[in-house]
Amino acid sequence: MSSPAVSARLRSLRPVSLALLLVAATYLGFLSGYPGGFGPVLAAAGVVLAAGLRVGAPRSVAVFAPVPVLVALGVEAVAAPVGFGTELVAGLAGLAFLVWLADDPSRPVGGAARSLPTVAVPALALGIAWSSALFLPSGAVPLGVAGGLLALTLAVVAFLVGRPVVFDQEEG
Amino acid sequence: MSESPTRSLHWRPLTPLVLSTGAALVLAAVVGRNPTPLFLALPLLLAPVAAALAGPRSAPSVRVDLSVEGAAAEVKLEGVVVPKPGVDARDLVVEVDRPSSLEGDPLPTFDYSKGQIRFRANWTAPEPTITEINEPKVLWRDAVGLVERETDLAAAPIVVSRYPPELLRIGAVRLEHTTLLPGETPSRRIGESGEFHGIRLARPEDPPRQINWRASARAGRALANEYDLDKTGDLLLILDARPTPLGREVDARLFAIARAAAAGLSDSFLRVKSRVGLGVFGEFLDVVPLSTGRTQRIRIETALRQARLSSVAAPAERCAVAARHRFPPGLTTVVFSSLSDDTSEDLSPYLRRRGFPVVVLSPSPLPIIAAASPLSGADEELAGRIARLVRRDRIARAWEDSPTIDWDDYWSLGRFVEFVRRPRLRRA
What we know:
By secondary structure, chain A is mostly helical. Chain A is built from nine helices and no strands. Chain B contains twelve helices and 19 strands. Classes of the chains: A mainly alpha, B alpha/beta.
């Protein structure tokens, strides 16, 4: 295969966001504590499969590319032990997943940069949540407050998703 | 008045997947009393809402310019999509539908920049066709691909006509002039030479005698004379849209080819300001009355695009009677019929009896049938020979009523053009 063809193939993989996701997911897999290196292998397999589906599969199949990554991340996060570092890595893996989604090869390049407004809000929320967990004293009361806030957040998200019209603005 | 519901925000299929994963992780965190899944869930739950808030709050305005180039079978579609200021063109997704009568890669190539999207598609028309390329669907989609919104599109569909190139010049043929326009006096001159109207840019199909050489030399570019009125005559085009034993699919392809040829003929004659009328005969005769000019061209083009095969084969006499009511007798009449059965053969004798001198242009079904034939080798050759014999017999019988041109090479109408250029033969 000629050099330009290889280069084009490599570019269609969008290597920067792919590497970011691979590193975050593999590290989360490493921290997840599965025996025999199962965590990193699962993470790497999920990411590679997703990248392969995106680049090589027909469009109807390529839409399912995020599924292996989500499964791998979910399996690792559930098994991961409690720890501030692990929590941060899990959050960063979620953000890396969003950036990887934005770098879709079927769309024009620069998607990761243009996704900044979308990724910035969860990143900000993640920062607040993680620093709260790190610096605030924990106990039964804060756990209850956090649980309540979480339930409220879920209800708000469900409401917004159920009524997309609330995002519309009347034209003046 | 609120925005049309179809233009409000839509969640893409990825959103439920991301949200359900996030919800499952929250549940796992609560059940397992482990905050790690919660931190992974947080970006997944918030991203769709953030994406919706980051995008335009109403349908963004987008202008689309389409153009079609190419000759004969080649159809080169080019388009430019320009969003209103403030919307990044790279966040737009353009979906172009290739008409079923064209072939080639259905996906155009896109060239994105921040301010506009250029796209081009190279398609081919395997047979003569008149079809419409619909305006593309343009969606705003957030960079992550979670939400999308339809745009407020300013665009119009574009018509593609592809017909044999010989038809471009057939308008120069002198037809019988049956009725006079108010205040019109018959011209003694033949061809495109009515009252001088003005000078315009020359077109490739302009004959040399129409080029204004002095004006061209002065301007440094080719200019041609234009005339007010060319008294070349009137033409009636009748398309037989009745079903035949060949089956719906073959009938539809032959009818599409006939529609394209009719579009080419009307274009060519209207360009030299002849009057052209159209009739599509299915169950009844749908007509576009005789007229001339650019409006008539659009009328005929629209009628041809909308013409569909009938499911009922009406008697040919109905067509002749209706034609006699709507058009003056003596009009040079071109009938497009596949002549695939006895019913389709009887159209021209009835029209002749009602005073219309008919020329039948018959698109042959043999190339289509041969291409779909499951036979091979000697069997195929034998079947082809028999089919050709049957076809020749039909054409010969049709000739007894009116001149009939067998049209088996769909991209060439040389035989037809040659025939109509010989008035003596035409009157036969």
